[in-house]
Amino acid sequence: MKLKKKILMVIAHRQFRDEEYDIPKTQFVQKHFDVRVASTNVEIPAKGMLGGEATADLLLEHVRVDEYDAVVFVGGEGAKSLWENKGALKVCVDAVKEKKILAAICLAPVILANAGVLEGKRATVFPSEQARILMRRGIYTGKTMEQDGKIITANGPSCSEVFARKILSELELIEAAPEEGAYTL
Asked: What CATH number does the domain containing 138 carry?
């Protein structure tokens, strides 16, 4: 029996962007992925900028990246609270080390930049924060969505659906790839 793929979504406890969370999560669940949510508080529901709520399954500092196939950072004003969060930065570094898909949307790509994982990589972010990508030696492209290797970034709520589809596409490519050490004739 094949194990179900797991996706970790990371949200700020306050002011995450609702559609950047809801749209991808709905698509992931519809495709039968096991989705877990991490935040800085699990005691009370997280609140979105548009009034939505989300319950975190685990604290950010307890995340073990090796248990997931992809890590997705949700944007919104609240993402600023994670820009320097040690747990968030560690998750980014670990995701790259573990060769996992690492994705961030809106203001969240700044977290990746601050973790040092965008250095020399093409990325996008909400336009107001492009200087933060450049300061950390990322290559800001200004595109709606950008992919460089296993890192996927998008610039805001309007591209939530295409962002989710891109992540799913990459996960399905991994699913279709032969197992390590396998060969084909």
From this structure: 3.40.50.880
